[in-house]
Specification:
nucleotidyltransferase, alpha/beta, 2 domains, five-stranded parallel β-sheet, 44% helix, 151 residues, Rossmann fold, 5 helices, elongated, transferase
């Protein structure tokens, strides 16, 4: 039985996350996933929208995932690989080369990300929509102020 292990934040869960988990599961018989805690993300300089408890529950609910557990440090990976008896460590290809040092305990694989979707792009889109809405509200407020002034 082969076990694949991966890690991620999985904030604003989207089709790219789902397809990556599906492809990861296809690499082995079992998929275990470390989900970055809010505290660990803060250490990495990342701020999540969705709290850890919700993100890990979402990941656990995906049918391709057998186990999801907290990722709290960079250093825990070797212990997790041993505990889960993982034979493959896999990540998205934006991490190419970053985990090659784990090749001495398991096979390291980097998979391509799903094109045209990313959490970063979703965040940027939401920020742009927010900025547009604020601009509309300011314009409306200015117009209302002008109407009040003329009365």
């Amino acid at each position: 039985m082969s076990t694949v292990i991966t890690y991620g934040t999985f904030d604003l869960f989207h089709i790219g996350h789902l397809k990556l988990l599906q492809r990861l599961r296809a690499l082995g018989d079992r998929l275990v996933v470390g989900v970055s805690t809010d505290e660990f993300n803060a250490l990495k300089g990342k701020k999540t929208v969705v709290p850890y408890e919700h993100r890990v529950e979402i990941v656990r609910s995906v049918r391709y995932v057998d186990v999801a557990f907290p990722e709290q440090t960079w250093e825990q990976k070797r212990a997790d690989i041993a505990r889960e008896r993982a034979t493959i460590f896999a990540m998205g290809d934006d991490w190419v080369g970053k985990f090659d040092d784990l090749n001495d305990v398991c096979e390291v694989v980097y998979l391509p990300r799903t094109q045209e979707v990313s959490t970063t792009e979703i965040r940027q889109l939401v920020a742009a929509l927010h900025a547009d809405k604020l601009a509309e509200l300011k314009a409306a407020a200015n117009h209302l102020q002008q109407v009040i002034t003329t009365l």
